[in-house]
Amino acid sequence: MATEDTSTSNVVEFDALIIGGGVSGVSAAYHLQKTCPSLKFCILEARKNMGGTWDLFDYPGLRSDSDMYTFGFSFRPWASQTQSVIGTKQTILDYLHTVVKEFDLQKHVQFQCQVLNADWDSQEGNWTLTTSQKQNHDDSTTTVIYRARYLFSCTGYYNYEEGYTPEFPNRDAFPGPIIHPQHWPKDLDYKDKNIVVIGSGATAVTLIPSLTEGPHAASHVTMLQRSPTFMASRPSHMTILSRSILYWFGQDATRWFYILFGMFFYNICQSFPRALSEFLIDGVEHQIGSDKFKEDDWTPRYKPWDQRLCACPDGDFFKTIKSGKASVVTDHIVEFTEKGVRTEKNDVLPADIIITATGLKIHFFGGMNITLDQKPLDMPSRFIYKGFMMNGVPNFFVAGGYTNASWTLKIDLTMQAASDLINIMETKSYRYCQPELPKPGNEMEAVPSIDLTSGYIQRSKHLIPSQSTFYPWRLYQNYLYDKYSLQFQSLEDDTLKFSK
């Protein structure tokens, strides 16, 4: 067990601190280094490696659910010899490590450094971070204090320690492994086993084809869902059109093709939800065959893009269902038994292994305690400004991506804007800046900042900062609008308060 040495506390000074070494942290570091080269900064990463989510998750078949031309950074285009557009875990990690090496960012990283508290001191105009840092020579930890004027939170939005698992009645009666994909055992033997996967989201759709292929394939996999999810097949490699664009016009044009196509499809779904619902459901029936299609199993209760659309590269999930290697059951769980999972309408679904692909736990800012002059920050009462700051929180930049497109698209824009704002402050000798709400009498309506009906979002609405109904407090989920407002409009607007 690790022991903590609190006898001495080291104090380390930087100009800026970036919490998190995943996709968002790498983007923040690149833009800060490019825009403000004279500033001294450090990336504080709680894990042993860079990569964030992609270093943490390790379940079979793990891949991106966005095309890599938009998931890759604008400053380092995705390039693949195989012309793949869906990235696997390893190709994404290789890409991130290449970016880190190419821009010499590794020298700025402090690994195994968990941020516990972050406090803004108005008198000093600094953030003070209390961290628990592992030593290189053993498992002991020591408390290290970091100070900086600027703070980037690039921690993602969910709990890295555990995923969300509901309370299942009689759970202890099941003698076999019960596994959440967030912590996949490396030595799990599922060859010739019956597996029940609880859940129908992106994780389940990714897992099931992988569990049924290869020399270690399961005997049969049952996807047990409470309600269906919208799914769609998409090519895992470039189409003739996208290959032609790449050949004739290059990487930037290819990236714009995928950006605009994604925006087009999203807006079609929003404008014509009934027609698109029928289109997606008919597509499933076409893929799996009418003999295996049951309307109740494939007709969601929500409109397309009220939750993220599950992408099935080359229709792999549908092919697995069609082959009979996997099946779908729509039902409610009564209890676990010695033989598997008892449901309301289907008696016992036999299982040797149960996988709970039941979602994530929201955990903003890596679970650190944030205070302003030692007073706790009430997160739900705050409003998100332009997608990267919060009202009344000085020199604090938040990394948040799109819900309807690649995470990285928004991250690139907001981290560049944050770095540009810091450059303005440095040039004009401002000590801090913070967004301020409209004056009394112009109160804003508070609405959830993440507009999805997904269970993991709905369970955590009370923990999430709000947005409002008008700019700059509105998150429009629109890349073109954000690109214009963040890159071509002045960052020195009437909402930001600057102080020397």
Automatic annotation (TrEMBL):
The keyword Nucleotidyltransferase does not apply. FAD binds at S24, E45, A46. GO terms for molecular function: flavin adenine dinucleotide binding; N,N-dimethylaniline monooxygenase activity; NADP binding. InterPro entries: FAD-binding_MO, FAD/NAD-bd_sf, Flavin_amine_oxidase, Flavin_mOase-like. SUPFAM superfamilies: FAD/NAD(P)-binding domain. Keywords: FAD, Flavoprotein, Monooxygenase, NADP, Oxidoreductase. Gene3D superfamilies: FAD/NAD(P)-binding domain (3.50.50.60). Its cofactor is FAD. It holds the Pfam family Thi4. Its EC number is 1.4.3.-. The keyword NADP applies. Belongs to the flavin monoamine oxidase family. This is Amine oxidase. It comes from Seminavis robusta.
